[in-house]
Amino acid sequence: MKDLHLILRFFEIFLRLSVLPLAISSAVMVSQANDTSYQYGDIQFARISAFRFLLSVNCISALYSLISAALLIFLKENRTSSWGFFLLDQLVVYLMVTSSSAAAELLYLAHEGDREVSWSEVCSYFGRFCSRAKISLILHFLALFCFICFSLASAFRVFSKFEPPSVTSDKEVEGNEGD
């Protein structure tokens, strides 16, 4: 069991470090998602709250993955640190899911529009903006996948320290009820 924990720890550190280039690249791409159309003006990521949120979460996830990888390398594992990693991993995963969902919805609307409310698609006019936002979102989803994987690893680390509940037969339970 100790070998499994060591392999899992190495894999977790590798995944945490893998998030760095993905999240940083996603942040750079979304921050460069600006475009100008002579016919319709300009569009900037900073004016769209979902893309500002995506940028913020990318920065948070990159910083957290760097710090947590360093702590995993240099700290001795104990129950408190395992719970801390587990809870913080879950928090960052939820932030990443919400930010990617909001950005994906806006990117979908930019590509497809919404005829019911008379919104036309804008990617044919702001192609550079849409392509950079799409690349940023793809990189963000890859970072999210890494986060989900090492969140599962940290959950395994936490919950493997507990004994499974004991299984009693129905006859034992019936015999104890009369007492």
Automatic annotation (TrEMBL):
Membrane protein topology class: Multi-pass membrane protein
Primary location recorded for the protein, binned into one broad class: membrane
Subcellular location: Cell membrane
Casparian strip membrane protein domain: residues covered: 9-146
Pfam families with a match to the protein in the record: CASP_dom
Alphabetically ordered keywords of this record: Cell membrane, Membrane, Transmembrane, Transmembrane helix
Top-level taxon of the source organism: Eukaryota
GO cellular component: plasma membrane
Transmembrane segments: 6-30, 51-75, 137-159
InterPro entries listed in its UniProt record: CASP/CASPL (IPR006459), CASP_dom (IPR006702)
Record-stated family: Belongs to the Casparian strip membrane proteins (CASP) family.
Assembly behavior: Homodimer and heterodimers.
Annotated NCBIfam families: A_tha_TIGR01569
Protein name per Swiss-Prot or TrEMBL: CASP-like protein
Naturally occurring in which organism (per UniProt): Platanthera zijinensis
